[in-house]
């Protein structure tokens, strides 16, 4: 195990400990507003072209016109709180705290996402 990986685990544990109340409050608020599972998985593509499924708090509601941001989701998104559960991906080894966020799976093959995958 490298020093970088050990640092990721130590920082993720510390941040999870501090942010656990925020995750719980956000999950309860989403569950009350949507009456659905508060967590969702989003696929991203890493630099190496590997697909990673990231944990996030659900911020949108599916409607007949497409996804719509909820009131709770707007608050979580404004402060980027929906991304806190990604610390679980750091603990799992899928992400690093010092690495860039992956690109969307659909965007691979075009523009910037394609350039990242080619490196």
Automatic annotation (TrEMBL):
Write down the InterPro entries for this protein, in alphabetical order.
Answer: Bact_transf
Q: Which residues form a coiled coil?
A: none
Indicate the transmembrane segments per the record: 12-32
All copies of domain Bacterial sugar transferase, residue ranges? 4-104
Keyword Iron assigned = no
A Pfam family cross-referenced in the UniProt record is Bac_transf
Keyword annotations for this protein? Exopolysaccharide synthesis, Membrane, Transmembrane, Transmembrane helix
Provide the family line. Belongs to the bacterial sugar transferase family.
Q: What is this protein called?
A: Bacterial sugar transferase domain-containing protein
Supply the source organism for this entry: Rhizomicrobium electricum
């Amino acid at each position: 195990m490298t020093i970088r990986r050990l640092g990721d685990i130590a920082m993720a544990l510390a941040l999870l400990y501090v942010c656990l109340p925020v995750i719980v409050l956000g999950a309860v608020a989403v569950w009350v507003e949507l009456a659905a599972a508060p967590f969702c998985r989003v696929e991203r593509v890493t630099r190496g072209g590997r697909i990673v499924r990231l944990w996030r708090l659900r911020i949108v509601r599916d409607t007949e016109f497409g996804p719509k941001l909820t009131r709770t989701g707007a608050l979580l998104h404004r402060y980027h709180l929906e991304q806190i559960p990604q610390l679980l991906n750091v603990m799992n080894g899928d992400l690093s705290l010092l690495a860039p966020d992956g690109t969307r799976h659909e965007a691979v093959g075009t523009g910037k996402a394609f350039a990242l995958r080619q490196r």
